[in-house]
């Protein structure tokens, strides 16, 4: 095999890895009783999915300077800091949005 096809294969193999690095997220979840506190730091255009209450996936994305889109139990809501919304059996409150970080409180 010549070097050109090998370079093409190497480039094709690297694209998904580079895409994953470009959409990096960091999140923490702390749950106690009927409350979970979530902090998610998102790179531009990325999403985070975290488990709350052990078995429910909370998605966080579309973060801008003033709002964030949150999904839980098949429901989605776009909220600003200070707002709350019922998503299924849970209530999600946006505690703060600062730069690329959002802090949420989930109760249920």
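^ structure tokens above, recovered residues below v
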């Amino acid at each position: 095999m010549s070097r050109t096809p090998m370079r093409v294969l190497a480039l094709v193999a690297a694209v998904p890895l580079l895409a994953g690095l470009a959409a990096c997220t960091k999140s923490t979840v702390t749950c106690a009783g009927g409350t979970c506190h979530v902090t998610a730091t998102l790179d531009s255009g990325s999403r985070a999915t975290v488990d709350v209450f052990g078995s429910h996936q909370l998605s966080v994305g579309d973060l801008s300077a003033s709002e964030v889109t949150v999904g839980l139990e098949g429901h989605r809501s776009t909220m600003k800091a200070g707002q709350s919304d019922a998503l299924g059996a849970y209530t999600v409150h946006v505690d703060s949005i600062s730069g690329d970080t959002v802090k949420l409180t989930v109760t249920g």
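The chain is about 20% helix and 55% strand.
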